Amino acid sequence: GLLLQEVTMAGLHELRFTEEKPLLRSQDAELENSDAFLSSVDTDWKEHDIETPYGLLHVVIRGSPKGNRPAILTYHDVGLNHKLCFNTFFNYEDMQEITKHFVVCHVDAPGQQAGASQFPQGYQYPSMDQLAAMLPSVVQHFGFKYVIGIGVGAGAYVLAKFALIFPDLVEGLVLMNIDPNGKGWIDWAAAKLSGLTSTLPDTVLSHLFSQEELVNNTELVQSYRQQIGSVVNQFNLQLFLNMYNSRRDLDINRPGTVANAKTLSCPVMLVVGDNAPAEEGVVECNSKLDPTNTTFLKMADSGGLPQVTQPGKLTEAFKYFLQGMGYSECQGWGVPACAHALPSASMTRLARSRTASLTSASSVDGTRPRACTHSESTEAMGQINHTMEVSC
């Protein structure tokens, strides 16, 4: 089969999304109430503790594998867990239209889930490579054939590592706020000094939010300060933060730039807010990925947590991303009979404009459910020769 991807002449899309209401006060109100926020997850989620080579992993899952469709697997950032990181996004009404057709699996990093027991003194927290190597146990436990990963910050780094080590298990990645670079000794020393003068929640907040957000979006920041300090075990959190800060560079390079370059082989959507502390790292990551299967999304009027402050625009971008991989809304998010349906479904409030652009077709594993013939795909390529511009 053929997997169709859209690329501009420069080899990627840069999309700027502006939310009509960047952050509704009702979202702040929900976050301010700890019990309401943490209980807003649906009752049909099931919790599991899964044995892995590097210890137990807490996972919550909704649904069951549906044919050959991948599971949506998430991984949160430092200071958060799956609820604090993803509840707003996955509870967003339009996102429900997608997730009811896919099994959704949220992974909590070791010891970061609500109510987790504190690790004993001297516990060696798994390295970032080991955190990635724990995920095949999740895939095997639930019988997933492959996954579409959605990761934020440290979670994005873990999922990128997972895709590099186990490429056959990953069909696509949405990576928010990813920083592919390890800390240099100056950064490491600065982080150590900051840790001596700041509380742990303050250190985490400076990772999650830009300085501007810390000053101007006080309701959101204060609600997260409360959750980080009360919901996540502080000892366990410090171990996770230390391991993330000691990460090495992701071993990726754009194909053709160095001999035997490694990069992510699956479709990738990079996401960052235009007022996010991670912007520089995401731009750097984009420069190291294959431009023929990478989309770069900079979200206007958004900061360090676009999945919280801009869930509507992120949902629409995710719809496009799924369509680019061959999943069709009009087919109930199943794989369409041919590629004609890939970009045709309309998205509310999103405008498209045709430009002179290139379209690439990349082959994928023949066992995956791609039903287009070569002639059908070639014809469809002429119809999807465009990029997306958004004005709202």
From TrEMBL:
It comes from the Eukaryota. The keyword Repeat does not apply. GO terms for cellular component: cytosol; membrane. SUPFAM superfamilies: alpha/beta-Hydrolases. It is found in: Cytoplasm, Cytosol. Its main location: cytoplasm. Residues 357-376 are annotated as: Disordered. Keywords: Cytoplasm. The keyword Chloroplast does not apply. Belongs to the NDRG family. This is NDRG4 protein. The lineage of its organism: Eukaryota, Metazoa, Chordata, Craniata, Vertebrata.
